[in-house]
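Batch 3, record 17
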Amino acid sequence: MKNNNIGIAVIGSGRIGSLRARLSAKHPSVNFLAISDINFDNAKKLSEISGADFYSSNNDEVISRPEVTAVIVSSPEGEHVAPICKALELGKPVLVEKPISLTLEDADKILEVLNKTKGDLKIGYSRRYKECFLRAKEQMLHGRLGKVIGGTTRVYNSRAQAFNILERDLHATPVLDILTYYVDLMCWFLEGDRPVEVVARGNKEIFKGYEADDVTWAIVTFESGAVINFGVSYALPTHYPTLGQSDRVELLGKDGVMIIDDDHHDHIIYSEKGIPHAYMPNHEVNMAFLGSNTGGDWAVGNFWGPLANETRAWLDYLATGAPTIHTTPQQARITLETTIAIVRAVETGQSIKLPLLN
Ligand SMILES: NC(=O)c1ccc[n+]([C@@H]2O[C@H](COP(=O)([O-])OP(=O)(O)OC[C@H]3O[C@@H](n4cnc5c(N)ncnc54)[C@H](O)[C@@H]3O)[C@@H](O)[C@H]2O)c1
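Prediction for the assembled complex:
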């Protein structure tokens, strides 16, 4: 049976909330859209752009509207808990942006309410919905690499975007906020296995005075013995050509190897007129790696890419019950715990065992 009477509330009308709202408005089964933002003007602006039916600066009012049947939480990382719990208590399914929260205490509060309400919560790790990684997962499902023995992944971006993210939430460091995507991806590729130990080192010159490191390299050992290297640097020069994430993912198995070059050095544009950065409205580059926008791109009247695939898959799931590959709350907690362990390993210079005891 198809549910054609979906009402969506979007909480947080910034960059990502705006994309989710506009994508929701286009979905054939959505016939009510409500917008909330702590900043009334942001809610009003997005409501006008997306043609929403209702907007407010009061999250609870928006979530509680009887027409709202499901909720997207796109507020900053440290502001996910209250709107998720409110929606779950009202029995409304939730899609929340990654990471589930910035602390294990907050994640456990969410999991407690989820268990109590037997609710439905999915976490938006949109890298899963990037086509190169969907293809990679398909190879893993066929077991083409055999037993995974190791791997490596690293992601680069300009310091301009790092400062922008830290402005939104000082605690949303490149490890907790970005490397988290790659911990999620590797745990998804190695589904059934889990991280048990972390060693890591970091360096700080550019982000002095912040919790963030310029460069972080970690080696994570999984229960199976697989050793995976995770790296992140969001300290590349301000006008480095990436428009989001330039990354690589490599997996080594007993029977095969898979190398995914997602730097986008193969799609280059150079323009004397400048190319606007989708995430930072006042930032331009002359050269850009097309395809490196993390969420995807507007092209010929529609939005395409991982965030679009992910939003549509969730709306289709609400409409038809079709299963999705979104990150589960339990997987999101393991990923959060692993990134926190990476931070601790850098701070202490010690190896950190998982699960964390406190
Ligand atoms: N999947 C992706 O591709 C992707 C990319 C970037 C960011 N994200 C995630 O999306 C989330 C939001 O990031 P963004 O880039 O849209 O941030 P943003 O700063 O552009 O927008 C956040 C909005 O939330 C509002 N807000 C702040 N506190 C609020 C509260 N308590 N209740 C309601 N609204 C509140 C702010 O006023 C702002 O309008 C974060 O969790 C981030 O990690 C995901």
